[in-house]
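Lab notes, practical 5.
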Amino acid sequence: MTELARRFRAELEEIRVALWAIPAELAGQPWRQGGWTRREVVGHMLDSASNNRHRFVGAAIDGHYKGPQYDQKPWVNAHGYAEQEWPTLVRWWEAEHEILAAVVDRIPESRFESECIVGDGAPVTLRFLIEDYLKHQLGHVKQLKAD
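Output from the prediction step:
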């Protein structure tokens, strides 16, 4: 297992603990006025995991990735995350991220420099996508903890 894979798993564990620490009573409340509810934020985190799994796998297999960005609001609405129970969403997050961690565990070091293009964005490496993914998840945890 690479150092990046170890770090990926460790940071996902921190996020998992943080999600379970959020009271279910707050789940239906927006994290800020006019923002998504905490349920919708976790749903967005799930969608991000799904989209990034395709990117990570594609780059790991093919040595490059080119694909679309994801349109977050329609995805969140299509899944109906706002109506799901908090424990259900957190369990889904756990399952989705165990799959994603298993993918990262199996990426050889040589593939981390694979070129990835998401939407109309500039080319980045697979390593950047993985590290940026963690930053993205951690940023949402801060939103979920907001008063």
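Observations recorded by the TA: The beta strands are 64-67, 115-118, 124-125. The first strand starts at residue 64 and ends at 67.
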